[in-house]
Design a protein that fits this description.
89% of the residues lie in helices and 0% in strands.
């Protein structure tokens, strides 16, 4: 029950970001850069300091390698598919609105797909070590808010009704507790599977930082993104000190 509540609250932060965008509009580029930079730093540190050591503790190096490879390959395939889909130029009387709609749907699809391995990370981490699951949930929740904002803005510009944007963001949010359930049910049957599950999440989330969160934060504002990354060091240190 605790895992379900924790993963659901983590997922709902995507919806909170979307609702914030519906109510207040998109925040400034510097704020987004700082926030995404801090999120990228936290996830990277969690992978290096918590996830990978936990995976090596649970299973052999072969299991960690398999999990990392599957996680990276899965997200690479998703990324390439989305790039191809977004590259198709729509033909319409109002191409600008169709472009916004296509962009919003692709962002929503990308968030929903990568929310599943994030949920697996929470579930597998929670079953391995309670504090690891909580730390994973915190780091994921931080970057879910700007993701919700990034999804909602183009859909609103495309003319979608706000209530449907909110409903879509809720559906996407539920992908994290679904992933947590998968992590709990299928990746904790043996130390080998636990190592694969944790390292799969590490590989998938590492790809997301490398291809999405990190570059996007730098694109918004390089200085504020770097300040956010430095802030993540302090936050992770405080979290570990409080253990």
């Amino acid at each position: 029950m605790e895992l379900f509540i924790l993963s659901t609250l983590t997922g709902v932060t995507t919806m909170l970001g979307a609702i914030a965008a519906l109510l207040f509009g998109q925040p400034g580029r510097k704020i987004l850069a700082f926030y995404l930079g801090m999120s990228a730093g936290i996830i990277t540190l969690v992978i290096a300091v918590d996830l990978l050591p936990a995976a090596f503790d649970q299973g052999p190096i072969e299991a960690v390698g398999v999990g990392l490879g599957i996680g990276l390959l899965t997200m690479l395939l998703v990324y390439e598919c989305l790039q191809r889909m977004m590259g198709d130029q729509p033909v319409s009387v109002n191409p600008k609105k169709r472009e916004y709609l296509r962009m919003g749907y692709m962002i929503a699809l990308a968030i929903g797909i990568h929310n599943i391995p994030e949920g697996i990370a929470i579930g597998a981490g929670f079953e391995t070590e309670h504090e690891l699951g909580v730390l994973m949930a915190l780091s994921i929740a931080l970057h879910n808010v700007p993701e919700g904002i990034g999804m909602a803005i183009p859909l609103v510009l495309a003319g979608m009704r706000k209530r449907w944007v909110a409903i879509l963001s809720l559906a996407i949010s539920l992908c994290i507790p679904a992933g947590a359930w998968l992590g709990k049910c299928f990746f904790v049957g043996s130390p080998f599977l636990v190592a694969i599950g944790i390292s799969f999440a590490a590989g998938a989330m590492g790809f997301i930082v490398w291809k999405e969160i990190g570059p996007t934060s730098m694109k918004y504002n390089r200085l504020f993104a770097q300040v956010g990354m430095l802030a993540s060091l302090a936050l992770i240190y405080i979290i570990h000190a409080l253990r």
